[in-house]
């Protein structure tokens, strides 16, 4: 008898009449179904389908509730800055790049350690004049192995207990140690467990975001295509000179197109920086100081056509000047000393508004038009406000 093998008596296989019945365990693998299917109670009729809630945003036009998402990019492309910016905006209820957010408790799994997060969160609070309270944004400074059910079960229990509406895993690579990123099987398990964590959020309507790297080519998501195939939303970050392009490559429900051109802006008095709209002087509007969406006023020259090829027409839903438009209007009455809606990097192009125009000089550390982060010098090199006909009390 081979070592380690245990054999059953032949009597367990053949009855007294000599009929072969087989192993009891083998028979149990294919039992006779005499009960209703467990899926019967999960069927949706047409009426039930109509009553399902419509998709709702966590961050308007960026992340939808009840989804899993991936944010990937090459090292140094700002993906962790953006993930933290999303997380802090949701935790505080602050708009992200002009997009409304639904305020939720956030769990940030800093799988590579919490070193550096203190400075980044300090910079975010200082730059945007927002104080995150205890319980708004919690940090878990240890990795959670998404290939081990025990780790996933424990994290899901924490999410359920604390009612986190957003969970960030930074990075996925540190949360699947020992697994093969090129294996569709291993990556499929990770994606399935991301959905398990999402189901643990209140009513399953939270967002689970994984931060990942690019492959050797620096252009595509590292590892198996099962990552992208299983996620509901996929964004990529890419460096372009001094700017960071954030582009959506996949969205399960709704239009896919979404692009943000951002910049990492250092915040004075802190060791880190914040993510803000990139304001490179690259468009006709920015070079001339005229907004193509605003009609010319008496005595003003005709405005040049924008060279970007985008239509200057604004959406019909916009009945008043956007901040970018009011900042470059030749009519001083359109300038306000209050801080209106922050101009979104993606408002320009995908929404067919005018591109971002030069901001006015800060007064006492604050921009009178935009809630610009403290310590970020938004003046032109001449030290003068580039906006024509700006009221004298602002132009200084």
UniProtKB/TrEMBL annotation:
Query: Cross-referenced Gene3D superfamilies, in alphabetical order?
Result: P-loop containing nucleotide triphosphate hydrolases
Entry keyword Hydrolase: yes
**Could you tell me the superkingdom of the organism this chain comes from?**
Bacteria
Single GO term (MF): helicase activity
Concerning Pfam families, the annotation shows: AAA_25
Where do Polar residues bias regions lie?
325-349
Q: Where is this region: Disordered?
A: 288-351
Which keywords label this protein? ATP-binding, Helicase, Hydrolase, Nucleotide-binding
- Recorded protein name is DnaB domain-containing protein helicase domain-containing protein
Which organism's genome codes for this protein? Rhodococcus pyridinivorans AK37
What taxonomic ancestry is recorded? Bacteria, Bacillati, Actinomycetota, Actinomycetes, Mycobacteriales
């Amino acid at each position: 008898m081979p070592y380690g093998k245990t054999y059953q008596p032949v009597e367990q296989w053949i009855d007294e009449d000599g009929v072969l019945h087989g192993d009891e365990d083998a028979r149990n693998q294919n039992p006779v179904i005499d009960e209703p299917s467990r899926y019967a109670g999960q069927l949706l009729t047409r009426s039930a389908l109509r009553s399902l809630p419509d998709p709702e945003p966590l961050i308007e036009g960026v992340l939808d509730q009840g989804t899993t998402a991936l944010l990937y990019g090459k090292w140094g492309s700002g993906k962790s800055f953006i993930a933290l910016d999303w997380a802090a905006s949701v935790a505080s209820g602050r708009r992200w790049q002009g997009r409304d957010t639904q305020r939720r408790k956030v769990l940030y799994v800093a799988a590579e350690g919490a070193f550096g997060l203190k400075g980044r969160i300090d910079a975010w609070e200082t730059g945007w004049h927002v104080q995150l309270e205890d319980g708004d944004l919690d940090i878990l400074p240890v990795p959670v192995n998404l290939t081990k059910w025990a780790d996933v079960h424990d994290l899901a229990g924490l999410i359920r207990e604390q009612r986190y509406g957003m969970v960030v895993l930074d990075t996925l690579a540190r949360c699947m140690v020992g697994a093969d990123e090129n294996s569709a099987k291993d990556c499929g398990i990770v994606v399935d467990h991301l959905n398990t964590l999402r189901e643990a959020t209140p009513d399953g309507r939270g967002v689970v975001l994984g931060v990942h790297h690019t492959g050797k080519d620096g252009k595509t998501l590292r590892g198996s295509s099962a990552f992208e195939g299983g996620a509901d939303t996929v964004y990529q970050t890419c460096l372009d000179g001094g700017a960071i392009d954030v582009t959506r490559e996949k969205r399960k429900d709704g239009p896919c197109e979404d692009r943000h051109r951002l910049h990492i802006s250092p915040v004075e008095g802190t060791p880190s920086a914040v993510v803000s709209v990139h304001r490179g002087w690259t468009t006709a509007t920015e070079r001339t100081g005229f907004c193509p969406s605003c009609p010319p006023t008496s005595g003003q020259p005709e405005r040049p056509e924008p060279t970007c090829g985008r239509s200057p027409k604004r959406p019909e839903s916009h009945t008043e000047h956007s901040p970018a438009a009011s900042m470059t209007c030749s009519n001083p009455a359109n300038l306000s000393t209050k801080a209106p809606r922050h101009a979104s990097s993606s408002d320009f192009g995908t929404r067919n508004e005018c591109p971002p125009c030069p901001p006015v000089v800060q007064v006492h550390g604050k921009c009178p038009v935009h809630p610009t982060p403290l310590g970020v010098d938004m003046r032109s090199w001449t030290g003068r406000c580039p906006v024509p006909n700006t009221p004298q009390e602002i132009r200084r």
